[in-house]
Amino acid sequence: MNILDLDHSLTAQAPIARLLDSGRAKRLDLLDLGPKLRLWSSERTWRHFAERLQQRPRHSGPAPEIFFVGSGDYHHLTPAFLTDLPEPVSLIHFDNHPDWVRFAPRRHCGSWVNQALKLPDIRRIVTLGPCSDDLQNPQLKGGNLAALKRGVLQLFPWQHAPSRVWGRVGDGAGHEQQENMLHWRNLSEVDWTLFLDKMIASLPTDAVWITIDKDVLASEDAATNWDQGGMRLSHMLQALRALAASKRIIGIDICGEYARPAFSNVFKRWEAKTDQPPAERWSDTDILRNSTTNQALIDLFEELFP
């Protein structure tokens, strides 16, 4: 496992410290790049990150390569993990936000899905769990409905009201259009086991990459820099087991720790203050839930990929 130390949020957790002390994980020191990469990044800084990433110890063997990344403010680093894949993959994306905004900077934690869709080995992205208001009038907020229309992106909210759209998007695996409204197939209302079976059977590739932002989880299971979704940890663990049973998982990256704000310029500080809930909503006890959830993920990974 790889621990990307961008913001101190991971190394302060006991489960991560035990991984590092035992040699079961390697730490990549990226603290100097953390504030420059956080929330969004210039292309130059993003390239510096990609170069540093290539310096990590090379992964070998049948088990997937696993990355713990830190705050969800770094989710736009995921495409760097996907640029040198050995075969085509389906990307399974757990998140409380669709991260599909086309108005944002190119390397932004809210727009990275669009960059991933351009990569040659990505055949489909399946986004599971959004509850956020990004799906209210998504076209006005820059949502990539064109990808939804083409079917290369499928989106299944955990719970969300119908979304108003203009023009024809059409029906998809996770939605149905009725006049100018997209009615979502809310995961909170379906048989989770049956849904997973059908979703996995429909994937166009045998190999999958899994990317997790823990803000997809309810506040009982995680405390992040963003608003929390409604999925429970038990649902996520069941999904990971089902994917491992039916597909070859070749990589996993996990973000969504809570990290105190540390931004490289005033524009990022303003954006974070505007878009993110106040940090004061979490107590130290709340933040400890991230350690519990990470321990559950580590235990599952070590069980599935000995």
What does this protein look like?
This is Arginase. It comes from Pseudomonas jessenii. The chain has helices at 14-22, 34-37, 43-53, 78-81, 112-117, 145-150, 192-201, 233-246, 266-275, 284-304; strands at 2-5, 26-29, 65-71, 89-94, 122-128, 153-156, 163-164, 175-178, 181-184, 207-213, 248-257. It has a single domain (2-304), classed as Ureohydrolase domain (Arginase, Chain A, 3-Layer(aba) Sandwich). The chain has 306 residues and is an alpha/beta fold. Strand 8 and strand 9 (181-184) form a beta hairpin. It has ten helices and eleven strands. The longest helix has 21 residues, at 284-304.
Q: How are the SSEs ordered, and which strands pair?
A:
Elements: E1 2-5, H1 14-22, E2 26-29, H2 34-37, H3 43-53, E3 65-71, H4 78-81, E4 89-94, H5 112-117, E5 122-128, H6 145-150, E6 153-156, E7 163-164, E8 175-178, E9 181-184, H7 192-201, E10 207-213, H8 233-246, E11 248-257, H9 266-275, H10 284-304
Parallel strand pairs: 1-2, 1-3, 3-11, 4-5, 4-10, 5-6, 10-11
Antiparallel strand pairs: 7-9, 8-9
Helix pairs in contact: 7-8, 8-10
Examine the coordinates and then state which fold CATH places here, giving the name of the CATH topology: Arginase, Chain A
| Adjacency order of strands in the biggest sheet | 2-1-3-11-10-4-5-6
* CATH superfamily caption: Ureohydrolase domain
Q: Give a count of the beta strands, DSSP E runs of length 2 or more.
A: 11
What profile does the largest beta sheet have?
A: 8 strands, parallel
Number of helices: 10
Rounded to the nearest angstrom, the distance between the terminal CA atoms is 12 Å
Rg (C-alpha, Å): 18 Å
Helix content: 25-40%
Shape: globular
Q: Number of folding domains?
A: 1
Which band does the percent of strand residues land in?
15-25%
CATH architecture: 3-Layer(aba) Sandwich
Low-confidence residue ranges: none
Q: What structural class should be given to the helix and strand makeup?
A: alpha/beta
Q: What is the CATH class name?
A: Alpha Beta
Give the overall pLDDT as a whole number. Answer: 94
Helix-strand topology string: EHEHHEHEHEHEEEEHEHEHH
Protein name: Arginase
